[in-house]
Amino acid sequence: MWVHEGFTTYSEALYVEYHFGKKAGAEYIKGLSQGINNDIPIIGEYDVNDTDYTQDAYLKSATVLHTLRQVINDDEKWRAILTGLNTEFYHKTVTTADIENYITKQSGLDLSTFFEQYLRTIEVPTLEYFFEDNKFAYRWINAVPGFDMPLKVKLDNKEQWIHPTTKWTHEYTKDTKNELIIDPNFYVAGFRNMKE
User: What is the mean pLDDT of residues 84-96?
Assistant: First the structure.
């Protein structure tokens, strides 16, 4: 269901983006994400008539695809992946593994923990972080073992990428950072650890 409904719902955002701009498409997805329940994983049981799915098959799936677009960080490649999926699997029945393998191969990225996190759990990966002296430390919590998704953030109004894993990463800076804003195009949460 997530493949069928998620891509269809995501195409609504692409339609909005095409007609009204990239920011409008991103805001459309952000609006959809407000309805995510995270009550059950979006992948159900295989080999049975599993009708136990919720609106997350639509909303969360589309939001996950939008997050994946950010991780790939190359809109031309992302468009080629989307059109390639249509070509490769035209008039075929596909499984989640088919979709995961195709996107992984075409993106050139190891997306195994990304798919495990977003498709098979109900946990929202959360960036835990703190600032102390000239140190900025961060890691993923609420995440599957080995989850290592890169993330775009603003630190004191300067946009940059960070590369959290499930282990603490420490960066040293000239100035103590006081403000971190997570790019809203990623389906994640943030938690400031008041260790400082």
Answer: 94
Q: To which residue do tokens 């095409």 refer? A: 18
The last residue of one of the domains, among 120, 151, 173, is 120
Q: Which of 61, 163, 188 is nearest to 110 (CA)?
A: 163
Indicate which CATH number applies to the domain containing 22: 1.10.390.10
CB-based contacts of 76, cutoff 8 Å, min separation 6: none
State pTM to two decimals: 0.92
Helices (H) and strands (E) in the chain, counts: 6, 7
User: What single DSSP character describes residue 116?
Assistant: H
Give the range of the structural domain holding residue 134, as residue numbers without chain letter. Answer: 126-192
For helices 59-72 and 22-33, the axis angle rounded to 10 degrees is 140
Adjacent-strand bridge partners of 128? 139, 191
Q: What whole-number distance in Å separates Cα of residue 127 and Cα of residue 181? A: 11
Q: What is the pLDDT of residues 114-155, one digit of tens each?
A: 999 999 999 999 999 988 877 889 999 999 999 999 999 998
> What is the count of structural domains for the chain?
2
Nearest to 117 by CA among 97, 138, 146: 146
